[in-house]
Design brief:
Number of strands: 16
Oligomer: single chain
Largest sheet: 9 strands, mixed
Bound molecules: 1-O-pyrophosphono-5-O-phosphono-alpha-D-ribofuranose
Distance between the termini: 33 Å
Length: 214
């Protein structure tokens, strides 16, 4: 399901259903309800890959037949959706990890500079989790992802994984050079950014397409 690129910090999903749903979200004729549905399916598949090696602890239980030593998640997990587009990934990941906490970060790109602007943060006052999964469908320049990583690092999170649907080489380069411990899980590494800093071929503006605000 997953093909790692030479840099072990980048994990690109390789799966027929990923290719199918990725094409749905890239297609400019896909209406919002179908965009939302396919984005959620992609979020499920990305999160399965991104959490495959989470730490486990043994737990002795009783099955209806006999006792058994099984496994449970050992670490506390936080989901960090970047508003707005990351919201489209939250429910799918929460279905897989119902005990996760959700911390919203509000960032938008200034249209003229493409620099991220911070406008909202709902990190709880205490350092609540061990692993943070940043949810954002698009990694373009990497400015937003780096700002999110910085907030989480400043706050005390030691393990950060970035879950995106599509990523530009420029964004991957920025995140991996500034945050060498962050692992990126994505469905596709696209060609490049255009002059407006949009991913090419990309999928347009995920937030607008998700919430039908085009
Ligand atoms: C988009 C996207 C990322 C960011 C990526 O958000 O969802 O958060 O841009 O760009 P970057 O890697 O260059 O920082 P946008 O600013 O469009 O906000 P929105 O989700 O509210 O539409």
């Amino acid at each position: 399901m997953m093909a790692s690129m030479p840099d072990s910090h980048i994990h690109v999903l390789d799966h027929a259903l990923v290719a199918h749903h990725l094409t749905v979200v890239r297609d400019r004729t896909t209406p919002s309800p179908l965009f939302r549905a396919s984005l959620a399916q992609l979020a499920t598949m990305i999160s399965v890959s991104a959490t495959a090696d989470l730490a486990l602890r043994d737990l002795k239980i009783e099955t209806p037949i006999r006792s058994f030593v099984g496994k449970r998640l050992r670490q506390r997990i936080g989901l960090v959706p970047i508003l707005r587009a990351g919201v489209g990934m939250v429910e799918a990941v929460l279905k897989l990890i119902p005990t996760a906490e959700v911390w919203h970060l509000g960032l938008y790109r200034d249209e003229s500079t493409a620099e991220p602007v911070h406008y909202y943060s709902k990190l709880p006052p205490r350092q609540a989790v061990d692993v943070a999964l940043i949810l954002d469908p698009m990694l373009a320049t990497g400015g937003s992802a780096c700002m999110a990583c910085q907030s989480l690092t400043d706050w005390g999170v030691t393990e950060i994984r970035l879950l995106s649907v599509i990523a530009a080489p420029e964004g991957i380069q920025k995140v991996t050079s500034e945050f060498s411990g962050v692992r990126i899980f994505t469905c596709a590494v696209d060609e490049r950014l255009n002059d407006e800093k949009f991913i090419v071929p990309g999928l347009g503006d995920a937030g607008d397409r998700l919430f039908n605000t085009v």
